[in-house]
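Weekly sync, protein design subgroup
Attendees: M.S., D.O., the rotation student, P.L. (late)

Item 1: inverse folding check
M.S. brought a backbone from last month's batch and wanted to see whether the design step gives back something sensible before we order anything. D.O. pointed out we never logged the input encoding, so this time it goes straight into the notes. Structure tokens as presented (627 positions):
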């Protein structure tokens, strides 16, 4: 017996079915009394003389009491145990780890090992703690060159002569080929012999591992993919606990590879084992859930990846597309089958929680991929605009747009950023910009754009920001206060201030399409103004970003955007970064890329005038008139 129930009798908690062994749960020598809301559910007896008592709170929280053989409380964490007890547990747990590794990760016909039963009655947190204690770090080899020798399953040396071929190639091209052929191809690290795979392990939200078996050498290995859109990230051989990567600097991140795999096996065993023993697979591409959703990456990586699949894969071979959190607004611009009608009937919106993706994949016998790219074509942008227009403008938007067109009033969009990497005195800067536009253009419509609603037109459902924590006020409320202040400031002038803070993404696209140009703080909002609507613009950011940021070109360089219109950047010499300025929040601090900044007014006015001359010349009141 490796687990037993806990019963409450005569005011005492006892382990059921212990025979003559001690069964009264004690704390400091007296019968245990638990804090309100906590109840002991089950005890694990797989590591005697240590007993693990699983506790559950009525709110769903889990905890563990670690008991000695006499059922006396000794600790609530492994870290608090005496070193001798911890070492004994490590020695007991290591055979469990290798049994799981050998029978599930390394065997072509995996089976459920008896060692798995020793973990019954343990909650997920304690299982993870025991694995952290017992699993040896994975040996990591960066940019392997030449041959490499490992110990084979029979104890002999196995020479790996083709690791570079295993890790080479474009994995997105491999996925596209596999959707028609039915299997992913990869070269064996032994000699480059081509092998085929139809099994994917969902190790994490952004890490999949593809399972290959070279039966000539009894070698099971896994090829991993992560957020690198076209690269294989690593080769992992669990039997030798060694990982190889072509990316310099990635080795440290792979030291927990065996730990991640074994933990996955333990937590997903009920669904994973039948999956590995089954035949029949369907390919599926999976998108981000709300928890990791980013308006820019959703388009730049995921929609571009699906666009390539739709263009390259025959209609009969198109994959299933899994959209997690569909009811929470994870389809940012429009329903995917509206953007890609070719995928009609192939969108699965039933996965409510991305953390259950592995179970979903295994139970539905899927081989899952992340279809990714990083080039936004004009045709994809047009697809998005057409799909968004179905639900985009409100009656007010349509009426106002028609009125502005009749009045020949220019529309200028201001892409606002409030949380960090913005102006030290944002309101004053925006007033200055709007006033200058009014002076040069006369009657003008100013569109204020920022965070968008995920669901309908509800600001309370707005997309979060990178680095935003649960305790932070949502940036959209700062934006809304700013909009009110600007509308009040210009209420008696020729300026019409239109507030889109907290509006839907399709509404933002509707107005971005109609602007003569935009002035915006460099960031994810440029996905709307540049990639989808391809509007000319002036980008503001702090000096550090303008001088040093490696991805500053993603919104205009031909490498990333087809046929991009003009995008100007402020001269970094006109920007004064202020590392001491208060930020609404930042992912980490202090980091120069998030610093707020001040802008030299003369430089800003000069850039605004250039945008007006280039993109709104007919409304420019300062331009010389022809007689």
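Designed sequence read out in the meeting:
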């Amino acid at each position: 017996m490796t687990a037993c129930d806990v019963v409450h009798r005569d005011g005492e908690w006892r382990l059921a079915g212990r025979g003559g062994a001690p069964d009264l749960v004690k704390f400091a020598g007296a019968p245990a009394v638990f804090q309100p809301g906590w109840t002991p559910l089950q005890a694990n007896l797989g590591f005697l003389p240590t007993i693990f008592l699983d506790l559950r709170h009525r709110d769903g929280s889990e905890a563990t009491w670690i008991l000695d053989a006499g059922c006396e409380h000794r600790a609530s964490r492994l870290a608090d145990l005496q070193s001798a007890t911890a070492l004994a547990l490590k020695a007991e747990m290591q055979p469990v780890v290798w049994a799981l590794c050998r029978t599930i990760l390394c065997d072509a016909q995996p089976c459920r090992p008896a060692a798995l039963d020793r973990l019954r009655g343990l909650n997920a947190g304690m299982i993870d703690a025991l694995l952290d204690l017992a699993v040896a770090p994975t040996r990591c080899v960066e940019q392997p060159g030449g041959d490499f020798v490992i110990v084979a399953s029979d104890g002999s040396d196995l020479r790996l002569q083709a690791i570079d071929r295993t890790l080479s190639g474009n994995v997105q091209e491999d996925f596209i080929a596999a959707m028609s052929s039915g299997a992913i191809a990869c070269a064996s690290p032994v000699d480059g012999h081509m092998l085929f795979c139809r099994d994917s392990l969902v190790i994490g939200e952004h890490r999949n591992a593809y399972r290959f078996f070279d039966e000539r050498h009894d070698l099971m290995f896994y090829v991993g993919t992560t957020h690198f859109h076209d690269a294989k990230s690593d080769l992992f051989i669990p039997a030798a606990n060694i990982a190889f990567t072509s990316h310099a600097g990635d080795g440290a991140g792979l030291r927990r590879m065996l730990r991640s795999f074994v933990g996955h096996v333990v937590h997903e065993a009920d669904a994973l084992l039948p999956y590995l023993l089954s035949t029949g697979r369907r390919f599926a591409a999976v998108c981000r859930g709300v928890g990791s959703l980013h308006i820019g990456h959703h388009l730049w990586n995921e929609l571009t990846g699906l666009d390539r699949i739709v263009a390259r894969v025959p209609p009969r071979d198109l994959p299933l597309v899994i959209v997690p959190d569909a009811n929470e607004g994870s389809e940012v611009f429009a329903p995917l089958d509206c953007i890609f009608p070719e995928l009609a009937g192939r969108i699965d919106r039933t996965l409510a929680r991305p953390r259950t993706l592995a179970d979903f994949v295994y139970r539905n016998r899927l081989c899952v991929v992340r279809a990714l790219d990083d080039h936004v074509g004009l045709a994809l942008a047009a697809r998005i605009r057409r799909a968004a227009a179905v639900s985009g403008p409100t009656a007010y938007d349509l009426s106002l747009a028609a009125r502005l067109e009749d009045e020949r009033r220019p529309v200028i969009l201001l892409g606002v950023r409030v949380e960090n990497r913005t102006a030290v005195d944002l309101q004053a800067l925006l007033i200055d910009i709007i006033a200058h536009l009014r002076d040069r253009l006369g009657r003008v419509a100013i569109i204020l754009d920022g965070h968008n609603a995920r669901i309908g037109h509800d600001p309370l459902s707005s997309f979060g920001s990178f680095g935003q924590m649960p305790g932070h006020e949502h940036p959209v409320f700062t934006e809304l206060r700013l909009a009110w202040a600007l509308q009040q400031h210009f209420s008696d002038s020729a300026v019409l201030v239109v507030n889109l803070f907290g509006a839907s993404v399709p509404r933002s696209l509707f107005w971005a399409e109609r602007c003569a140009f935009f002035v915006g703080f460099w960031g994810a909002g440029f996905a709307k103004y540049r990639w989808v609507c391809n509007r000319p613009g002036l980008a503001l950011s702090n000096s550090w970003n303008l001088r040093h940021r490696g991805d500053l070109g993603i919104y205009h360089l031909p490498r990333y955007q087809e046929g991009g219109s003009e995008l100007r950047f402020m001269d970094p010499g006109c920007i004064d970064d202020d590392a001491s300025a208060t930020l609404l929040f930042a992912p980490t601090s202090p980091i120069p890329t998030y610093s707020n900044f001040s802008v030299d007014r003369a430089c800003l006015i000069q850039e605004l005038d250039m945008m007006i001359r280039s993109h709104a010349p007919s409304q420019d009141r300062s331009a010389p008139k022809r007689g």
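Discussion: The first helix runs from residue 83 to 105. The chain has a mean pLDDT of 92.
Action: P.L. to compare against the previous round before Friday.
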